[in-house]
């Protein structure tokens, strides 16, 4: 079923990394305009799934459709060119460039700071004060959590159709996690479709419309976040923890 209600659809996706068979037939549907949480234990295959969507690994079997279009065999720049933004687990910022330069590179429509969308920039400064504070500092000198804010700021400096973010709350202090939740909540309200990998259950519960849980290279549960949050026994069996 290729539904227009789903912006992104993976069907039976297998991924091999060298000799290792990592994904074993991933089925995943990301509804348009909603936030989908991808959960699962360490090593379940979450990052590999995101990398396969972005063409950083090639699916060896199965299909990936975006907006009804088959993107399974496209290369990463072509996939990014479809207005899909990806924040990898290691954040993908340029350490030697200033925070400003990092955002400028991500703002494809601007060639200098004055051309960046000023209202959007003010919104980012409110969400992530560190971005403004360290504007003219090399991004590599920032703390892990501050780098995480810069990485998310980079992908929201322009409107996107799909945001894919690998563990945005990783290493963040509780107060900043709340800013991050606020940021994604506002992005949700702007209508953008979001796929988040998350280990922080508080974060997942606050933001998720839908949830998919992976284990051993497969999606073993998919449904609404509210239903999973309400079902302690299911959480225990899927994640070995309670929300
Ligand atoms: N480059 C690689 N070479 C070989 N095996 C890999 C590689 N990258 C990942 N794997 C393996 O693939 C499996 C899935 O890894 P993946 O990074 O997708 O898990 P994850 O769900 O993102 O875990 P985490 O929560 O720890 O980030 C793991 O067993 C991992 O060891
Ligand atoms: Mg991972």
Helices and strands in order:
Blueprint lengths: L5 E12 L2 E12 L3 E6 L5 H8 L5 E8 L2 E2 L5 H5 L3 E4 L11 H8 L11 H10 L1 H5 L10 H13 L5 E5 L7 H16 L3 E5 L3 H7 L2 E6 L2 E7 H5 L2 H8 L4
Parallel strand pairs: 3-8, 3-9, 6-7, 7-8
Antiparallel strand pairs: 1-2, 1-4, 4-5, 9-10
Helix pairs in contact: 3-6
The structure holds adenosine-5'-triphosphate (ATP) and magnesium ion.
Keywords: Amino-acid transport, ATP-binding, Cell membrane, Membrane, Nucleotide-binding, Transport
GO molecular function: ATP binding; ATP hydrolysis activity; branched-chain amino acid transmembrane transporter activity
Organism: Acidovorax temperans
Give your account of this protein's structure.
There is one protein chain. With 243 residues, the protein is of the alpha/beta class. The protein folds into 2 domains: 3-83 and 160-239, P-loop containing nucleotide triphosphate hydrolases (Rossmann fold); 93-158, no CATH class. The chain is built from 10 helices and 10 strands. It has helices at 46-53, 76-80, 99-106, 118-127, 129-133, 144-156, 174-189, 201-207, 225-229, 232-239, and strands spanning 6-17, 20-31, 35-40, 59-66, 69-70, 84-87, 162-166, 193-197, 210-215, 218-224. Strands 6-7-8-3-9-10 form a 6-stranded mixed beta sheet, sandwiched between helices. A hairpin with a 2-residue loop joins strand 1 and strand 2 (20-31). Helix 3 (99-106) packs parallel to helix 6 (144-156). The two termini are 32 Å apart. The mean pLDDT is 90. Magnesium ion (MG) binds at residues 46-47, 89, 166. InterPro entries: AAA+_ATPase, ABC_transporter-like_ATP-bd, ABC_transporter-like_CS, BCAA_Transport_ATP-bd_LivF, P-loop_NTPase.
């Amino acid at each position: 079923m290729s539904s227009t209600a789903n912006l992104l659809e993976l069907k039976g996706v297998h991924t091999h990394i060298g000799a290792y068979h990592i994904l074993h037939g991933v089925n995943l549907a990301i509804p348009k305009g909603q936030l989908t949480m991808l959960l699962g234990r360490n090593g379940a295959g979450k990052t590999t799934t995101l990398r396969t969507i972005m063409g950083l690994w090639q699916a060896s079997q199965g299909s990936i459709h975006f907006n009804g279009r088959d993107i399974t065999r496209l290369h990463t720049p072509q996939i990014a060119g479809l207005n899909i933004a990806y924040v990898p687990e290691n954040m993908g910022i340029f350490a030697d460039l200033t925070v400003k330069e990092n955002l400028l590179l991500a703002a494809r429509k601007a060639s200098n700071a004055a051309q960046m969308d000023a209202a959007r920039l003010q919104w980012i400064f409110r969400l992530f004060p560190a971005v403004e504070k360290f504007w003219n500092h090399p991004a590599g000198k920032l703390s892990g959590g501050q780098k995480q804010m810069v990485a998310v700021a980079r992908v929201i400096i322009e409107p996107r159709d799909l945001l894919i973010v690998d563990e945005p709350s990783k290493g963040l202090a509780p107060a900043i996690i709340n800013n991050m939740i606020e940021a994604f909540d506002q992005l949700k309200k702007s209508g953008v479709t979001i796929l988040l990998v998350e280990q922080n259950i508080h974060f997942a519960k606050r933001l998720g419309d839908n949830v998919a849980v992976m284990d051993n290279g497969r999606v073993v549960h998919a449904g609404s976040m509210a239903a999973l949050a309400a079902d302690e026994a299911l959480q225990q069996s899927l994640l070995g923890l309670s929300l």
